[in-house]
Design brief:
The longest helix is centred in the N-terminal third of the chain and has 12 residues. It is built from two helices and eight strands, in the order βαββββαβββ. An eight-stranded mixed β-sheet has the order 2-3-4-1-5-8-7-6, covered by helices on one side. 16% of the residues lie in helices and 40% in strands.
Length: 136
């Protein structure tokens, strides 16, 4: 995979979780001018995952869930997702310098290879191979 960040394609995506994601998505669209790019419905009128665009920018969002010790994103309200060209090397580097790994590097059900870690002040980050612009 080419390093798209070096050629101007965004690779850093803010991620927001809402108690009522369908309502929040409509609010974000109406109020701030976002447009739905991709929405994956969840159970009971929830949103499993959504991607909203505003110009060249994009956010990821969805419904909050029940605590899950294997997935910190289930209850996290805000975090960052970053597409990286060499996920194996990135993971090895983060582990080597002592990043707090919340979700080890693994394949996801949606075809990405990802891991999640906390930064030095506890913010949640995920790094992976899934590129939301590949679907655009």
């Amino acid at each position: 995979m080419a390093d798209k960040a070096k050629i101007g394609v965004p690779n850093v995506f803010p991620c927001l979780r809402y108690d009522d994601a369908p309502k929040a998505i409509e609010w974000l669209n109406e109020t701030f001018g976002f447009e739905k790019q991709f929405v994956v419905p969840g159970e009971n009128n929830t949103v499993a995952h959504a991607q909203l665009r505003l110009g060249p920018g994009m956010i990821m969002t969805g419904s909050g869930g029940k605590p899950d010790s294997t997935n910190p994103w289930a209850t996290e309200r805000f975090g960052i997702y970053v597409v990286v060209p060499d996920i194996e090397a990135h993971y090895a580097r983060a582990k080597a310098v002592g990043a707090k790994i919340e979700r080890p590097l693994a394949e996801t059900e949606y075809g990405s290879r990802e891991y999640s870690a906390r930064d030095c002040e506890g913010n949640l980050w995920s790094f992976g191979t899934y590129d939301p612009y590949a679907e655009a």
